[in-house]
């Protein structure tokens, strides 16, 4: 066979996600499946997709003599998952927080007892860059095994110029050591650090003036995030911060409407790629997001970890919005990190079709990261895909994430 090309097949069911829209509802019947299919890969991208007969004909034009072997057929192939919101670069554990929360303690009580985000900041600051790199790699490898081939990773547990740089350099180093693509995001605006003597405005000004230029110079991140919430940063305070970020060419994403509704409006005003959380979003916020190009990102892991409402996913889709589902894997509110299981739980409670779920884990999730080269198994897309030993794609969701992929391909290579 020509070394440039590789044929994957035959495949009993190839789920391409081709021709589906970024926004709006998707019915069960819209799942785009090719029966008795195959793919031709060219390097790390997809060259052709179709039925076995189509691929045999295409292979012939390339000078490749391919005879499909039915005994070696792959059962079900779907695109690799994209997790657009994680906090997997951290040190330490917040198991005590979880126990206290389930025992009825409030967020404030936990924080006063030494828990909360500041606990993770303290432990992450104590860790070396090398340790943070190793921690991140460990979590990425688990995500890869579970079918996640592109992973956004936030900073935000450093909360000073020096410590945020340490985290983002660790993320960059981890990216060199794994097959999955890691997409770094600067979340220096997570909370105002306890040891910063100035006010919220002064902190964000320092970060934008001293950290942003280094992010560009070292190519550490092209995405800026902020937690807009009463105990974090107000919409008013964040405005000049985001204005500076946009001026410097950064993409914007927002921790929005987790406990109160104000962040989604900021996301729309700044044409953010995504507004994430949205557990507190009401009818006004749903309509606002649906009538924008902002991808609404549900984080069911946080709802499960905190015992709070889910993102109104059904309403967002019915209003014509774009829905993405991410894990929010973090040491505090969402320590589980199992993306498919969380998506299936959200689907059950919000009555989402399997097509909507898979879209929210693939090409719609990629849109939240401004990546238009993955999430679908079509020509010229990145060859990230998963092989499941099941009779139908619907079996994957039926088992609510318990079934993991048998084989994971990233950039056309079996990992």
TrEMBL record:
The Amidohydrolase domain, residue ranges: 138-389
The keyword Iron is assigned to this record: yes
Pfam families: Amidohydro_3
This protein's UniProt keywords: Cytoplasm, Histidine metabolism, Hydrolase, Iron, Metal-binding, Plasmid, Zinc
Gene3D superfamilies attached to this UniProt entry: Metal-dependent hydrolases, Urease, subunit C, domain 1
Superkingdom classification of source: Bacteria
EC number of this enzyme: 3.5.2.7
Record pathway: Amino-acid degradation
UniProt-listed NCBIfam families: hutI (TIGR01224)
Name of this protein: Imidazolonepropionase
The species this protein was found in: Persicobacter psychrovividus
Encoding gene, per UniProt annotation: hutI
């Amino acid at each position: 066979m020509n070394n440039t090309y590789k044929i994957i097949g035959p495949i009993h069911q190839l789920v391409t996600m081709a021709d589906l829209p970024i926004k709006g509802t998707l019915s069960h019947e819209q799942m785009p499946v090719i029966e008795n299919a195959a793919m031709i890969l060219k390097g790390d991208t997809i060259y052709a997709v179709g039925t076995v007969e189509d691929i045999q004909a295409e292979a012939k034009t390339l000078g490749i003599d391919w005879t499909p072997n039915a005994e070696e057929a792959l059962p079900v192939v779907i695109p690799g998952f994209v997790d657009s919101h994680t906090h997997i670069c951290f040190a330490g554990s917040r198991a005590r927080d979880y126990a206290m929360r389930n025992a009825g303690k409030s967020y404030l009580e936990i924080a006063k007892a030494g828990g909360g985000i500041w606990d993770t900041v303290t432990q992450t600051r104590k860790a070396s860059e090398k340790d943070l790199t190793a921690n991140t790699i460990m979590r990425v490898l688990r995500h890869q095994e579970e079918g996640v081939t592109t992973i956004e990773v936030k900073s935000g547990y450093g909360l000073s110029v020096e410590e945020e740089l340490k985290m983002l350099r660790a993320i960059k180093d981890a990216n060199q050591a794994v097959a999955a693509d890691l997409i770094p995001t600067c979340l220096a605006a997570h909370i105002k650090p306890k040891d910063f003597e100035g006010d919220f405005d002064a902190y964000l000004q320092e970060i934008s003036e001293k950290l942003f230029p280094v992010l560009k110079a070292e190519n550490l991140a092209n995405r800026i995030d902020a937690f807009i919430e009463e105990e974090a940063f107000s919409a008013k305070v964040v405005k000049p911060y985001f204005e500076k970020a946009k001026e410097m060419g950064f993409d914007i994403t927002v921790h929005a409407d987790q406990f109160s509704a104000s962040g989604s409006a900021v996301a729309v005003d700044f044409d953010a790629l995504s507004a994430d959380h949205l557990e507190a979003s009401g009818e006004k916020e749903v309509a606002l997001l649906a009538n924008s190009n902002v991808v609404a990102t549900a984080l069911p892991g946080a709802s499960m970890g905190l015992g709070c409402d889910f993102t109104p996913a059904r309403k967002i889709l019915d209003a014509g919005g774009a829905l993405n589902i991410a894990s929010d894997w973090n040491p505090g509110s969402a320590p589980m990190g199992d993306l498919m299981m969380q998506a299936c739980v959200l689907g059950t409670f919000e009555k989402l079709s399997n097509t909507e779920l898979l879209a929210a884990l693939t090409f719609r999730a990629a849109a939240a990261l401004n990546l238009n080269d993955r999430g679908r198994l079509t020509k010229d897309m990145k060859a990230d895909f998963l092989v499941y030993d099941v009779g139908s794609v619907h079996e994957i969701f039926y088992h609510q994430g318990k079934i993991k992929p048998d084989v994971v391909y990233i950039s056309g290579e079996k990992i």
